[in-house]
Amino acid sequence: MESLKLRKFFNISVLKTLKSAFSRVIKTHLQSSIGILYWVAGLAEPKKRIFRNFHSIIKNRKPESEKSISVCYRDYSGMRQLLYWPPQPEYIKRFRKIKDIYPDEKINNTLVFPECE
Questions:
Q1: What Cα–Cα distance (Å) separates residue 49 from each residue in 9, 46, 87, 90, 113?
Q2: The pTM is what?
Q3: Handedness of CA 50, 51, 57, 58 (dihedral sign)
Q4: Do you know which InterPro entries this protein is assigned to (predicted)?
Q5: What is the 3-class SS of 19-54, one letter each residue?
Q6: How far apart are the C-alpha atoms of 71 and 111, rounded to whole Å?
Q7: Full residue range of the structural domain in which residue 29 is found
Q8: The pLDDT value given to residue 65
Q9: Phi and psi, residue 37, nearest 5°
């Protein structure tokens, strides 16, 4: 019984931590003179809805907006792909990749910069 309580507490604690991390990363953006860059966390879920919402935001913004909006996400490779499920092609079908920054040495995540079509 005690182990069931601990497991339940641990699961709730992990979910709260992930939810908090997700909301911080999604709401955090980098503003510069070039534009706004939104980062999508590797643990962010549901990815399909996140990319759909970003596409909607970018497409429906005011035309007189001076700053551009960009999106960046990590595409994991190797064993990390099992831990952090990468965005599937159907999730990012409304975007096209404009730049991939490949990792050096033992790092196995690629930064991907898609552009809204």
A1: 28, 6, 11, 11, 18
A2: 0.61
A3: positive
A4: SAM-dependent_MTases_sf
A5: HHHHHHHHHCEEECCCEEEEEECCCCCCHHHHHHHH
A6: 10
A7: 2-116
A8: 66
A9: -115, 120
Q: In the numeric block, which tokens belong to residue 71? A: 């999106």
Q: Which residue has the tokens 């992930």?
A: 18
Rounded to an integer, what distance in angstroms lies between the CA atom of residue 101 and that of residue 113?
A: 8
Helix (H) or strand (E) holding 59: helix 47-59
User: Which residue in 98, 90, 93, 94 sits closest to 114, CA to CA?
Assistant: 98
Q: What is the pLDDT, as a whole number, of residue 67?
A: 66
Mean of pLDDT values over 83-109: 83
Q: pLDDT of 33-81, one tens digit each?
A: 446 777 777 777 888 888 888 888 888 877 766 666 778 888 887 777 7
What b/e readout covers 2-15, taking b as 16+ CB neighbours within 10 angstroms?
A: eeeeeeeeeeeeee
Q: Which two tokens stand for residue 70?
A: 């960009």
